Model the fold of this input.
Amino acid sequence: MPSRAMPVIQQKQKKVSQEFHSSQHVQQISSRKSVSKSVKKEQVEATEAMAEPAYKVPAFRQRQPEGMQEYQRMAAHFGRDLSSLQQELHRMKVATHEQVENIEITREVKEKMSMRKEFQAETPKAPDFLVGLRSHTVWEKSPVKLFCTVSGSPTPIVKWFKNADPIDPLSAPGKYKIESKYGVHSLIISRCSVADSAVYSAVATNTEGKIKSKATVCVRRPAGAAESAHLPGLVPLLSGIHRSKLEVTFLDRFGVTFGTEGQSVTLVANLLVVPDLPNLPPDAEWYRDDTLLKPSRWAEMSICGGAAKLTLPHLNKDDEGLYTLRIWTKDGTTEHSAYLFVKDATPSVAGAPGAPMDVTVSDANKDYILVSWKPPNTTNEPVITGYFVDRRKSGTQDWVQCNSAPVKVCKLPVHGLTEGASYHFRVRAVNSAGISLPSRMSTGVTAADVESDVEVIKIEGKYDIVIRQEELQGVYVTLADPPTEVHATEINHTYVVLSWKPPSLRGRAPLTYLIEKSVGDSNFWQRVNTGVQIRSPRYPIYDLEDKTQYRFRVTAVNKYGPSEPSEPSELIQKVDPHGVPSAPGQVIASRNTKTSAFVQWDPPKHLNNLMGYYVDCCVVGSKTWMPCNHRPYKLTRFVVHGLIPGETYTFRAQAVNAYGLSDESQESAPLFIDAALTAPSAPYGISLLSCDGSSMTLAWKRPKNTGGTKITAYYLDKREAGHLNWKEASQSPATIRVHKVENLTAGLFYEFKVQAGNLAGVGLASEPSKAFACEAWTTPEPGPAYDISFWEVRDSSLLLQWRAPMYNGASPVTGYFVEMAKKGSSDFVTVNAEPESHRYLKVTGLETGALYVFKVRAVNAAGKGKASEVSDAVCVKALAGTKEIEYGVDEETGDVFLSFEASEISEHSKFTWSKSYKEIAESNRVTASVAGRRSKLTFVNPEKEDLGIYSVAVSDANGVSASHTISEEELNKMLELSYNIRHPIVPLKTELSYEVLEKGHVRFWLQAQKMSSAVSYRFIVNDKEVTSGEGHKISHDVSSGVIQMTIEHFTKANEGTYTLQIHDGKAKNQSSLVLVGDVFKAALKEAEFQRKEHIRKQGPHFSEYLTFHVDDDCTVMLVCKLANVKKETTFSWFKDDEEIVLDVAPNPMSGSCALPIPLFSRKDQGIYKAVLSDDRGKDTSVYDISGQVFEDIINAIAHIAGSSASELMLQCTPEGIRLQCYMKYYTEEMKTSWFHKESKIASSEKMRIGGTSEMAWMQICEPTDREKGHYTIEINDGKASHTRAFDLSGQAYNDAYAEFQRLKAAAFAEKNRGRVVGGLPDVVTIMEYKTLSLTCTVWGDPQPEVTWFKNEQEVVSDAHNKITFESGKFSSLTINSVTVEDSGKYSINVRNKYGGEFVEITVSVYKQGEEIPEPKLGQMSRSAAAPKSPAPPSKPQTPAPSMKPATPTPPPSVKSPTPTPPPSVKAPTPAPKSPTPPRSAKSPTPPRFMRSPTPTKK
Done:
């Protein structure tokens, strides 16, 4: 084994052995310089083979620097034993070396003889052990090597055995290593565990015989060793051999981790990999307990960038356990383990249990699947009463509950499944408080049988032959044989699983089974599985009666019929064969670290299929138990982590199996949480404080590690400088860190060393001090201060304290200077400009997290003295959890106190209170008390004398300390509060006050902050006590603190002063209320009103009077709510005393009535009244809609209308350009304003402002360029303004102006075109030979041309058809002596340059004597209007947005927003083929009935 793997002592021994051998055998070595290199190589290999590697006892924990000092102290303590051991080892090394040299010489001689070819025949020899096996006792996790030397001819073969079982290295890769070199055979066992304790033997065999050598290996586990960090339990075995050429070292390791269900946790280990190849990371394996983890939805693994990570994205209690990371390296494996704790998620219902865990499925068949799980731990929750099992088909998201009633045992056969379907399962626990969250779902399992009557035979590994059982038996089966071996495979209090052997001859037809039961030995058989087809040879049976025995038999059924029944089973009774385990035995808890404890217990007497254990802990003084683990732990020892340092805990354990949790074990003895006790580390910093020539006063610093307990003694040794022997400096040990060494010789130099001792023993000695000269000090300046300590360390400040010099010099010390520097710097800076008279100094303004060192110089009249030793470096950062001193008053006693809670303490920590940093020893002004981690300093009689700085320090607690300055103002405040507590009053939430109740009752009341059941009180009115009686009711409620008096009939006689006096134990108080003058009048008025209101409410009445609201469609609703109505109750609406009759009568029984007012405007102002009446009375509600109410309604309408307002739209008319805004409702009462370029527009002839119920508009008449610009409409609702804008400029204005000009021209043309004003009928019927005169009035400017047509052919004026046109107004067609040939369609065309019009007339001529024909459908006659003077048509009116536009489509060249005309508008001219257009054809001028071209509202 290389020397770097040996302990330091053994390396030194090897070096001494080599030097000794070199000095004794120089001539022999020089004489062998001619030996060949191969011989030297064999010598080295033989030496390595013979060398037995040294073993060292593993440390219980990884050694810190203090641990190395402990190891060195032990080596020094046992120096004599080690010296004798070294001599013995040296002798053995020399002898072994000589033996190796003799072997070398012998081999050299044999080599030379072989060169001369002088061979001698070998003599056969049986095996013989030259060196036999040696027994070993080693510590757990240490390696052990067994070796032996065997001779024999031919060369023997050696095999290794463990307890007579052969050892196969491949069965546990990495565990065993077998080597054989140069006749030396070895067995190396890596990382020994207790299970490796056994008798090992080596058996050597050749043709001449066999021989055996035995040795015992005993593996011991130190108390608390190895388990102190995590108690690994089962170490995972190597999964295989992974070849690696990488060297891997752990840098940062993951520690004990805590998580909660549902959270995500990542375990990270930083690695140093050599060589670090990005594409070739080391092989890593993660284990939970002894289970190898694979990547899944529950575990994500990665190793890259020098870090191995395991992420658990959704924690569950199934994930709790010991996690091990194993890395394969060049030399084998390196690994690290730590425990992960997963606590329950917050339950959906307070008090509900935690979720079950480890849900597994087994025994899957066609009929059922057995689901099992582990129960959760319960500490403060109610006992679990059962479990619900849910199932889900794979590929779906819906969970279905399997059992209707909770099952009490932690397993359940789930039946009613679909054959061949895959299922997942989960479990929920139930107790009296509710149902837990569901467990993690199980893996998928298929409901199918794996058993079959088909047998597969393989032939030469290539072919498969499928044969059924009946074919092997050579028979063809129809009816199956009866099943056999009916028995119960599982029995518990909930169900029985019945199993049987299928028929040996079953046939090819599918089989089902029928189960029958009988009670006891009776032969009355009853079907069990009614309506259920059983296809598997096992089935769970429920609904069996308690304490009743049953027999069962089974019948096989196929399509040919049922078989004979099987033989009945034995008597079976539904019972719990095991039940819960018994309680575990004695629980012992011991210290481990500052935040953990080692707990072990005795197993229960009755295990009953034990699953594991739960461990609980409880803080002493508390009744709340907390779970330490959340998943059953298999071993009987456990390390509890996450404890609070300085607290005292007790522990208990519970055993777990499928039936639940056992009773709790007895509680352990209380355990104070602190690190395990060890001997202290070495003191340091020995300094000389004074010397008088025959004695020296020395001081030293406390050990950095006190070993977890108080240091009881210091042992001081001395020696003269240059000497080796140490002598005790005093006969008795020192108890403080200052000691005067007597009987020294003046002029000599002395060295000193110190050892500290505690309950665990004496620690290591300090390093020798520097040599101090024993010469009397005579300097006038003072000596050095000493014992610099740091307290109240915060993020930017600290308090420095020191002790006065032991040597004052020529005059007394008058002050001190403090110097400081950052660690590593020699530039010290003086902190205080003037000498500090106290031996403490608060240093502020420091850098957070920086390291500082300090030294102190004392000053007297002669000047500055010698500097103290440089202090230890201190980090300027507050300890985690640091708290300050609290100043307050005890609420019970009224005592003024200072209180401090330490963030951490040890078992032997003490609280030291000081005033002005001088310890308060015995004082009649204060008393100190300690309870746990809190200490309280109580003032007996606080006065100004008690003002000042108070501080507290906690020993053995890493400098935990704090201070507080009591000022005079603060003291006075506390004294006042103390007086109030010692002279108590009943605290009041409210003073005495009154309120008027319904029926006109008046209640006088007050409320106290708290009140006991023994409270007494009395009401005094006008100096007379009032008691509860007629007219007065007096009562109180302790829970709410309310005391009240109710006067039922409040009158003028009740004016006066009311006083309530309260006595509650020692406390008392009173409150008064003066109820006179205007205050009393107001109360009396209110009481009378409430009395009247009560009377009113006895009949039908308004629970809410009339008010209004505006609907989304801007309808105003007057609403009221009614109460105490019946069917006979009538309801009426009135406005200005006139009844309003609605289409639908109000229904008082609905509880409310409403009056809608659509299109609200100023005309709707008035006084509205609602009247409610029946035989019990009448009630009226009046609402005046005028003034402010009217304004409020208009503003509400404006708010809805303004919010719904559309953007401004451009519309052109013959008169000008119109901007319009559509909204839900518009009325002129709304506060609407138009603006042009930020100037408000007033309605005028040029700018007309108006609107309809659906829009507001503003029209620019005869627009010019001056009207270009930005236009805005603003609708104000009293709170906000709603604005819409339009930019009428640029192209928008040009297009609008062009459209205006077109419409203006079209209007002029329409006004002046030719047209028929009246006089022509649609249909004319006339007798033959009569004269027909068709006369009409026409108009046009200029005068139109008139043309008559018959059947689309122009009529020419002649004797038969005479056409006249008189005065440019009257045109007529006269047909003399009409005949049948004159029947037809006649039309007149009136036209001038602006357009014209066609009017058609149908003429029907009948002969004399014939019946007058009826006019055709659609051709009813119209009376001819009398001719009138032509007049221009009236201006079109502004339409509502819902009306259809009538403007014809403009020419394509004009861009106009004018909408498309309706389909009724026809083409402007007739078709070319027909000279006479149809009667319905019109001119391009809009017809008379068409209105303004306003587009339809969108």
